[in-house]
C-alpha cells in the first residue's frame, strides 16, 4: 500500500501511541513544507509491523526527494518551537499576573 500511495504522490506517515511533545507543530511542518500527511491511528496499533513497514517506505522516498532527513529536521524544529512557546506563555502569564496583582511580586521579592 505504501508503494502505491507514493507512486500516486500521496505521502503519509502513520503514527500510533501517545503524541510526542511538539506533535501538532511536527504535523504542521511536515504537511506545509513537504506535503506529508501525518495520520494518527490512535493509542494502540494492532499490528505495528504494518505501520513500521509502511513508514519505512514513505520516509525513504521523502528523504531521498529532499536530500535530507526531513522527519528528524521537522521533529527538532517542532520541539524547539514548542519549548519557545511555553517560555513565551510563561512570561506573558507572569506579566499578566504582575499587572493584575502588583503587590504580590513586591511581597515575594521582599520589597
Give the secondary structure arrangement, pairings included.
Layout: H1 2-7, E1 11-15, H2 23-34, E2 36-40, H3 48-66, H4 70-100, H5 102-109
Parallel strand pairs: 1-2
Helix pairs in contact: 2-4, 4-5
Structure, described:
With 111 residues, the protein is mainly alpha-helical. The chain has one domain (2-109). It is 68% helix and 9% strand. The chain is built from five helices and two strands. It has helices at 2-7, 23-34, 48-66, 70-100, 102-109, and strands spanning 11-15, 36-40. A two-stranded parallel sheet has the order 1-2. Helix 2 packs across helix 4 and helix 4 (70-100) packs across helix 5. The radius of gyration is 21 Å and the shape is elongated.
Question: Short summary of the structure?
Answer:
The chain has about 110 residues and is mainly α. The chain has helices at about 1-5, 25-35, 50-65, 70-100, 100-110; strands at about 10-15, 35-40. Strands 1-2 form a two-stranded parallel ribbon.
Give the termini separation.
67 Å
How large, in whole angstroms, is the Cα Rg?
Answer: 21 Å
Protein structure class: mainly alpha
How helical, in percent, are the residues? 55-70%
Question: What's the number of domains?
Answer: 1
Low-confidence stretches: none
- Largest β-sheet summary: 2 strands, parallel
Amino acid at each position: 500500500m505504501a508503494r502505491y500511495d507514493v507512486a500516486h504522490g500521496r505521502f503519509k506517515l502513520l503514527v500510533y501511541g501517545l503524541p510526542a511533545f511538539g506533535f501538532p507543530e511536527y504535523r504542521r511542518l511536515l504537511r506545509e513544507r513537504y506535503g506529508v500527511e501525518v495520520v494518527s491511528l490512535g493509542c494502540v496499533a494492532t499490528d505495528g509491523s504494518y505501520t513500521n513497514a509502511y513508514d519505512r517506505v514513505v520516509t525513504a522516498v521523502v528523504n531521498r526527494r529532499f536530500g535530507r532527513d526531513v522527519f528528524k529536521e521537522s521533529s527538532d524544529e517542532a520541539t524547539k518551537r514548542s519549548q519557545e512557546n511555553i517560555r513565551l506563555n510563561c512570561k506573558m502569564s507572569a506579566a499578566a499576573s504582575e499587572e493584575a496583582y502588583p503587590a504580590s511580586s513586591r511581597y515575594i521579592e521582599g520589597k
